[in-house]
Design a protein that fits this description.
heterodimer, A: about 550 residues, alpha+beta, Cell Cycle, Spindle Assembly Checkpoint Protein, Chain A, 6-stranded antiparallel sheet, 6 strands, B: about 220 residues, 4-stranded mixed sheet, two-stranded antiparallel sheet, about 35% helix, about 30% strand, globular, protein kinase binding (chain B), autophagy (chain B), ATG101 (chain B), Autophagy-related protein 101 (chain B)
Chain lengths: ~550, ~220
């Protein structure tokens, strides 16, 4: 291959290709961070925007790219590749795309470097911007979060497409001819996920199949002979001890399974940032979105209480949110495991059931466990262990108590007034000697029948049991009234006191017989007038009905 | 010099028309816009920076990239809105097309006015379908998204051919090649037009134009 190019042009071309490679990596990685990218146009040239495009430089990404290139440039047989892969919360990973920047032998000797090549490289970057939003991995990366994250890896050398599964597709972004060869930018992407990409990614047997094959067909990256292993030099030792790649990878996987989720998060990101110049970067999988967020995550660690009450460490749901953006000023929400997979939600239900049976001489106090689950932001780590132990008991208590429960609408000989003043549910079913109107649930609705029955049950049972409020009935004796979610010894006015004070509200006036009788008569008298008014407005009603049709 | 012409076709639901057209037009203009030129002495110039931003579509599972220029976006939205209204009011089977034409101005001597010589024309043909159920609409969202992905790949393929582009002009001629009226970016001179096709497949306007030309030719 003859080069007629002069030395200045050669220098310019090398510089252009180098920065083009760095910008290419930036565009690809930023497109997989999971957020929309927005940069501003500037009419006055700043001189620092390569290819006249506003592409931000994420320092870590530039660093990784420079390390992978190691001062070399894409040449024939030596391509720069950016591998995009997906890693699930269980630790399974799968390659999604390989972006390749290659050089081939076809030279264009006539072309002008500083003008045409530069502008064409700029156009190629614009094409890359457009194409990165169009491959299936884009939609997946926009939805990354607590179930999976998108990782990238940069390597230099021969392109490895084995991990993409069968039937992968290729899209060519573009080419630019130069006197030294033709630069080609293309993307090979997996299509097996294509039908899933538009919906939420979920683990299904085919995906598991692919992942298993992935690990069988393609051994662990560090053992691949393709990657330049000559990089384990101490030349760039800045005094920090670097874990080898395998170790850091191991740290990633083991920390997920044994540590609480929050610590997992920080371990991963901290491990990354404590090693600014990792030893073998071409095999280091870097979490996409964790890059800009180490300080955010560490500051929010204190307020994050993993409410995971899991039996085993392996059962912890993956709450890590790597959802990222470039803007580090917006703290990202950490996913509370409470919203995940319903682990802490479960204790609430037995708590209800248990609480409903307070009057059954139950001295079980689920308050600790339920309290922890309900307020995951508490920093009381002791409650975690308490609640994990206490979880077993509500179930047992629940089981036994339901068998002994006696309903609130037991048939008892009580007079009418007292009955309506009791606020018992389904009052209309109790035998009473009321007039028709009072018994009609439409006119005289039963008192809040649609609230949670356990709570209601406790209130009404208390009422009928003659608690400390001084009711007339002492059929049920309250020994110890301990409502859920409360601690008697903390506040003077607590939930229990509230219950006792307000469990017998004054009777509604419409429920009393006299007033009821009066209003009944009034209603009957006013009926003809009402009918006359309605008849006048018949046309309006008809028109209204027609609009509904 | 011949004008190269590219034709794209899409089938969309009524409410997807705007976003689909904007996606295609913005993708083309992304490639056909540069930063603002700043001419210096001795005929050299420097170029401003073009920013980009992602736009999510509301009615299509699709995201496209456009240049960060609100002026340009407003201009496109205006004409796409007019197209959408014309399509809706046409009452036909919902066939229409928009043309994005890049042209150069060639100064002519008096009394002839400047000539506009197109060098690239992008035509997007739209077929509007009406869907009955929500499930069909959901499928349409995804299908149209995939179709637009294909269109973007087609556009990029054409752009990558590096075929004719106007020469970079001197300062005196920059307005013959570029639209210098925007504040932040500088696209090539372009114009957008649209036609609503009637049931016979011929557009009303072209029929009229043909009639007039025929009468003049006599």
């Amino acid at each position: 291959m003859e080069t007629d190019i002069n030395s200045q042009d050669r220098k310019d071309l090398d510089k252009f290709i180098k920065f083009f490679a760095l910008k290419t990596v930036q565009v690809i990685v930023q497109a997989r961070l999971g957020e929309k990218i927005c940069t501003r146009s500037s009419s006055s040239p700043t001189g620092s925007d390569w290819f006249n495009l506003a592409i931000k430089d994420i320092p870590e990404v530039t660093h990784e790219a420079k390390k992978a290139l190691a001062g070399q440039l894409p040449a024939i047989g030596r391509s720069m590749c950016v591998e995009i892969s997906l890693k699930t919360s269980e630790g399974d990973s799968m390659e999604l795309e390989i972006w390749c920047l290659e050089m081939n032998e076809k030279c264009d000797k006539e072309i002008k470097i500083s003008y045409t090549v530069y502008n064409r490289l700029s156009l190629l970057l614009k094409s890359l911007l457009a194409i990165t939003r169009v491959t299936p991995a884009y939609r997946l990366s926009r939805k990354q979060g607590h179930e999976y994250v998108i990782l990238y890896r940069i390597y230099f050398g021969e392109v490895q497409l084995n991990g993409l599964g069968e039937g992968f597709q290729t899209v060519r972004v573009g080419t630019v001819g130069t006197p030294m060869g033709t630069i080609t930018l293309s993307c090979a992407y997996r299509i097996n996920l294509a039908f899933m990409s538009t919906r939420q990614f979920e683990r299904t047997p085919p995906i598991m199949g692919i992942i298993i094959d992935h690990f069988v067909d393609r051994p662990y990256p560090s053992s691949s002979p393709m990657h330049p292993c000559n990089y384990r030099t101490t030349g760039e030792d800045t005094g920090v001890t670097y874990p080898s790649v395998e170790d850091s990878q191991e740290v990633c996987t083991t920390s997920f399974s044994t540590s609480p989720p929050s610590q997992c998060v920080f371990t991963v990101t901290k491990a990354h940032f404590q090693t600014p110049t990792p030893v073998v970067t071409d095999t280091l999988r870097v979490p996409m979105a964790g890059l800009a967020f180490s300080h955010q995550l560490s500051s929010s660690r204190l307020s994050y209480q993993p409410a995971a009450l899991g039996v085993g460490s392996a059962d912890l749901a993956y709450p890590v949110v790597f959802a990222a953006g470039l803007n580090t000023t917006h703290p990202h929400q950490l996913m509370v495991p409470g919203k995940e997979g319903g682990v802490p939600l479960a204790p609430n239900q037995p708590a209800h059931g248990a609480q409903a049976d307070q009057e059954r001489l139950a001295t079980y106090t689920p308050s600790d466990g339920a309290h922890c689950a309900a307020t995951p932001s508490s920093e009381d780590t002791e409650t975690v262990s308490n609640s994990s132990e206490g979880r077993a008991s509500p179930h047992d208590v629940l089981e036994t108590i339901f068998a002994r429960k006696v309903g609130a609408f037991v048939n008892k000989p009580i007079n009418q007034v007292t009955l309506t003043s009791l606020d018992i549910p389904f009052a209309m079913f109790a035998p009473k000697n009321l007039e028709l109107e009072d018994a009609d649930p439409m006119v005289n609705p039963p008192d809040s029948p649609d609230t949670e029955s356990p709570l209601q049950g406790s209130l009404h049972s208390d009422g009928s049991s003659g608690g400390s409020s001084g009711n007339t009935h002492d059929d049920f004796v309250m020994i110890d009234f301990k409502p859920a979610f409360s601690k008697d010894d903390i506040l003077p006015m607590d939930l229990g006191t509230f219950y006792r004070e307000f469990q017998n509200p004054p009777q509604l006036s419409s429920l009393s017989i006299d007033i009821g009788a009066q209003s009944m008569a009034e209603d009957l008298d006013s009926l003809p007038e009402k009918l006359a008014v309605h008849e006048k407005n018949v046309r309006e009603f008809d028109a209204f009905v027609e609009t509904l049709q | 010099m011949n004008c190269r012409s590219e034709v794209l076709e899409v089938s969309v639901e009524g409410r997807q028309v705007e976003e689909a057209m904007l996606a295609v037009l913005h993708t083309v203009l992304l490639h056909r816009s540069t930063g603002k030129f700043h001419y210096k002495k001795e005929g050299t110039y420097s170029i401003g920076t073009v920013g980009t931003q992602d736009v999510d579509c509301d009615f299509i599972d699709f995201t496209y990239v456009r240049v960060s220029s609100d002026e340009l976006d407003r201009a496109l939205r205006k004409v796409v809105g007019e197209f959408k209204d014309a399509l809706r009011n046409s009452g036909g089977d919902g066939l229409g097309q928009m043309s994005l034409e890049f042209y150069q101005k060639k100064k002519s001597r008096w009394p002839f006015s400047d000539e506009c010589i197109p060098w690239e024309v992008w035509t997007v043909k739209v077929h509007v379908v009406a869907l009955a159920t929500e499930q069909e609409r959901q499928i349409c969202r995804e299908k149209v998204g995939e179709k637009l992905c294909e269109k973007v790949i087609n556009i990029v393929e054409v752009m990558n051919r590096h075929e004719y582009l106007p020469k970079m002009p001197m300062q005196s001629e920059v307005d013959n090649v570029f639209d210098t009226g925007l504040r932040d970016v500088q696209p090539y001179l372009y114009k957008i037009s649209f036609q609503i096709t009637d049931a016979l497949g011929t557009s009303v306007t072209t029929t009229m134009r043909r009639l007039i030309k025929d009468t003049l030719a006599l």
